[in-house]
Amino acid sequence: MWRHLNVVSELPIMHLKSLRSLSLTLSFSTFLSSSVVCAQTGTSSGQSVSVTIPPSVSQNGFTGSVPASGLSPAPVSISFLDAIDRGLKQNLGLLLSGDNTLNARGAKWKELSNLLPNVVAKGQENVQQTNLASLGLRIPGLPRVIGPFNYLDARAFLSQSVFNWNYIQKERAAAQSLKAAEYSYKDARELVVLVTGNAYLQAIAGAARIETAEAQVKTSQTLFTRASDQQKAGVIPAIDALRAQVELQSRQQQLIVARNEFAKQKLALARIIGLPLGQEFVISDKAPYEQYTPPTLEDALRRAYASRPDYQSVQAQVRAGQLSRNAASAERYPTFDLEGDYGDIGVNPGNSTGTFHVAGTITVPVFQGGKAHADVLQAEATLRQAMARLDDLRGEIDNDVRTALLDLNAAADQVEVARSSVDLAEQTLTQAQDRFLAGVTDNLEVVQAQESVANAHENYISSLYAHNLAKVELARAIGDAEQGVKQYLQKSSTKVQP
Question: What is the crossing angle of helices 444-477 and 481-492, to 10°?
Fold first, then answer.
């Protein structure tokens, strides 16, 4: 009978806030991009882990990519670090975040243009005829119609805002929005590392499940052959041979499911990192395990508040909101503008005279119909929302760090227990086989021992995956995923776990 094992009592699932156009934070605890499912029919045993992708993650493109060009006819080898590097170049969510940064940079230049001089050059050739009577001029001796006549006017115009506190505050707010967008881009890179790392680790676990299932099929095949021979010799009843055959077919079905799941996990990984469409590839790294001493809770929280880009992004949004509110209030302040022009005017370039005009204008708002008050209220509401998000994110960071440390410590303990369980289960299987061959017992004991071995290996694979994923989650929680994950996984990937 199939039995579902709760190897990890609760695999953490990441939640991700919406990524808005300029600078909204990307916050989450952990993310599992696809499900790992073993066979669930027949009489064999396995584990099922089904995870739903949060809609915000899919909508923001982090599970997709822009496929690269250059399809290779031969399968390419992809290591963990190769996958991360490819994801940081081709992942759709990261590319969209980069465009948001470009948009924020354009908004800053737009606000800055109000403070910079505006210079326009204009040249015109005029030919006209004027009716003086239409202008109310009736002077004896002058004709009623003058012209046609022509003149040339080439001129440069300059306008400059000398003092406008509203423009100044808007430009400062746009500069903070640009900083927020840049921090959001950094946070998007952290998310790409997390999503790619999880997908690669799932593929590693899928490959390990195939190896385990193949070994179990070989063992079941050997036991079925022996049981068939003994049944033909009349040593054991037919039910023992039937039981061995059912066990063999169950293990074969488990192998089919494991291969199918591994193929889908590779497809999901290829989508995330942007491999060329139809590109065949192999996973070159094995599941690494290395003892890891995490930082203390106080140190991890200090590093998270200082370096997490999503937290820095929301802080920049709060500063932008404060400046936007100041800009709205400044709509009530007087402004001072300067404008002027200089050019030549005459019948032709050789017969022209230079002229100029300079004017300074002071504008004092008297009554604007409540527009300034409305803008202040809207800016105040936006500021309060940003401050509320900041307080919420601070609490979420605390939760992320604590959860990651708990998951890491629990996963490390699970790996040690799972290792011991594999050894004990294999010893139990060996003894059950010896007892069966000696005629002490029937092969029911052997079948049960086989299930114990299969469960122990599944526990080990799942705990190893959970331990490595917990490292990635902790690096993300403290804001060091891009560098931290590369460092410790590059070090441990040289160690191949049996």
Answer: 140
